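My main concern about presentation is that the manuscript never shows what a single data entry looks like. Each protein is reduced to its one-letter sequence and a matching series of backbone shape codes. For the editor and my fellow referees, an illustration may be useful. For illustration, here is how one protein appears when written out as sequence plus structure tokens:
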Amino acid sequence: MISKNKVIILTEGGSEIGLGHITRCLALYEAFKEYDLEPVLIVNGDKKVDEFLKNRNIQYKIENWIKNAKLMKDSILIIDSYLAPGKVYSTLKKNNNIVIVIDDYNRLQYNADIIVSPTIYGEFLNYKKHSNMLYLLGSKYIILRKEFWNIPSKKIDKDLKNIMITFGGEDVRNLTPKMLGLLKDMPYNFHVVIGRAFKDMTYISKYKGSNISFYFDLDTKDMLNLMLLSDVAISSCGLTLYELARVGVPTIGIVVAENQRLNAQYFQKFGFLVYAGEYKNNNLERNILESLEILNDYHERKLRSEIGKKLIDGLGAKRIVAEVVKYENSISRR
């Protein structure tokens, strides 16, 4: 039996590296609460993290846990990091911790108990598998926020009317004004999501009009409702892309960071995503317009919507926690 406060979730985030890891960890936090466990979330980050977390009903700390790894003992540790070096995992493992790693691209040879690759391509990563480790790989283990676990069925309308534009919590490449400049005169309603970490919002008054609506700092439920309303989304290829697939919103994807390339590649390969290219692609605007032409077809949208919903059922976080609890119980009985 796991004691109530034994679970610690370790991650990173902030103004320079974004909030994606934290968002994913919050979903795991909620899944642990389903088992009446109250994790502590420890984030290696800055004041942006505090702004993001302070009004949530969670236990959290902002500290450099990478430097303090040797202080953590006898806990269940969930680690979602691109920054922690291999020796940190070894230190944590030596201190009688159960170590669960969230890994997106086979970053290291981890010293751990459980490896989770909660990605559409996790089963295709060439992990060097060890008999004493558990591997939870692929779409069954994709981690989505609680509001996306059980959702209404999305209806695909005959006509394309509503287009959602979303580039994460901060739009690191400032693509929102570029998209609005390109699309503003087209005969659609545009629903533009402005995250709480956006640095540039000077363009909002310029583009606000009868067919352009802005949504500021949406909570998860409102984000879900906006996806249910939208016929098509234009999005970066991070965590939001997984939520769009779960809902079944046909999506035009733009890669804004290196760690999004595999998402784009495999969502395109499986038939859900219309890929427009990387943010710095010279033909990006033309590709967006051509992608909209593709998705103007009702049957194309309906097909891609069904593919997305079949790929992701929303229950990955609960499956991961169930496996962690099962693993800890098996260790306790030895």
